[in-house]
Write a structure and sequence with these properties.
Number of strands: 0
Number of helices: 15
Order of helices and strands: HHHHHHHHHHHHHHH
Helix content: over 70%
Number of domains: 1
Shape: globular
Largest sheet: none
Length: 292
């Protein structure tokens, strides 16, 4: 498969996982759902590491341990904020703020990986960001381009999601550093199980009830874990093959899918007011596909 195919599959699986998370948050604590996203994905992913475990002997220990030490606390913080955002705001209201991740990732990747997008590829990235912003401006009906900025003051969920976008800008680049050490398949199979263990230890001290609830109702979370596993596997496969900013931009097409799912399955409002932003994002994805 090409990097673009992996990235699109990543976007669709992320949208499905977000929809399931939003539905679970109506009944479960946000920390329970946040932990379940990783813990129930781990059994699907661990075999990929076990089948490629010899790659762990090829890493630079200092670089690899430092990468994981940066990634894990940020990833846990991000997923907690992610679930709080969806708990506090509509799926289609919070999701568009993820569109800023490619900008953060592009700047960080330039300094850490020396990745520089081509001019038309850069235009595609900026279209994805602009489209996501325009989608946010459609919340409540079209009330002008300043709407998302005003929502940051009135909707706590959007503020959490903007923080998530910044954190994911860092983790997407650091994740590629890990991938370059042991390969995408082994890293996907190792990283999420390790992350689940660290998260479980954190919850055992901070919120043991959330940990107990996550393990007491496994049927609730198995489908969520399955889609997260697909998302993680395709994410790392794609990011191994292409610049971080390109891959994250295509992955953020999940916002368009999230808005569509939010409209038809959760009956969220103002769907048509967001279509313009979705069209701009789609145009950006086409630019990236053709000129990356």
């Amino acid at each position: 498969m090409s990097w673009f195919s992996y990235a699109l599959l990543c976007a669709f699986s992320l949208s499905a996982a977000d929809l399931i998370s939003k539905m679970l948050l109506a009944q479960e604590d946000h920390l329970t759902v946040a932990f379940a996203r990783w813990a129930y994905a781990a059994p699907f992913l661990l075999p990929f590491f076990l089948l490629n475990r010899e790659s762990i002997f090829q890493v630079n220990p200092g670089v690899f341990v430092f990468t994981l030490a940066i990634l894990m606390p940020l990833e846990i913080l991000a997923v907690i904020f992610y679930m709080k955002a969806y708990r506090l705001s509509d799926l289609s209201l919070a999701a568009p703020f993820q569109s800023f991740t490619p900008v953060f990732a592009m700047v960080i990747a330039f300094f850490l990986l020396r990745e520089v997008p081509r001019p038309l590829g850069l235009l595609g990235v900026l279209c994805v960001v602009a489209g996501g912003y325009i989608m946010g401006a459609g919340v409540g009906g079209w009330k002008g381009l300043a709407t998302p900025i005003r929502n940051l003051a009135s909707e706590k969920g959007t503020l959490y999601m903007l923080a998530v976008a910044f954190i994911y800008g860092i983790t997407s680049v650091m994740g590629k550093v890990g991938v370059l050490q042991i390969g995408s398949i082994a890293f996907a199979g190792l990283y999420i199980p390790l992350l689940s263990v660290v998260f479980a230890v954190f919850l055992a001290f901070y919120h043991p009830k959330a940990l107990k609830e996550a393990f007491s109702r496994p049927v609730h979370f198995l489908l969520l874990g399955f889609f997260i596993a697909i998302m993680v596997y395709t994410h790392f496969r794609a990011i191994e093959l292409i610049d971080v900013a390109y891959m994250i931009s295509v992955k953020r097409f999940s916002m368009v899918i999230a808005v569509i799912l939010g409209r038809f399955l959760l009956k969220e409002r103002f769907f048509f007011a967001r279509l313009t932003g979705g069209a701009v994002m789609f145009m950006g994805v086409v630019f990236i596909a053709l000129w990356s």
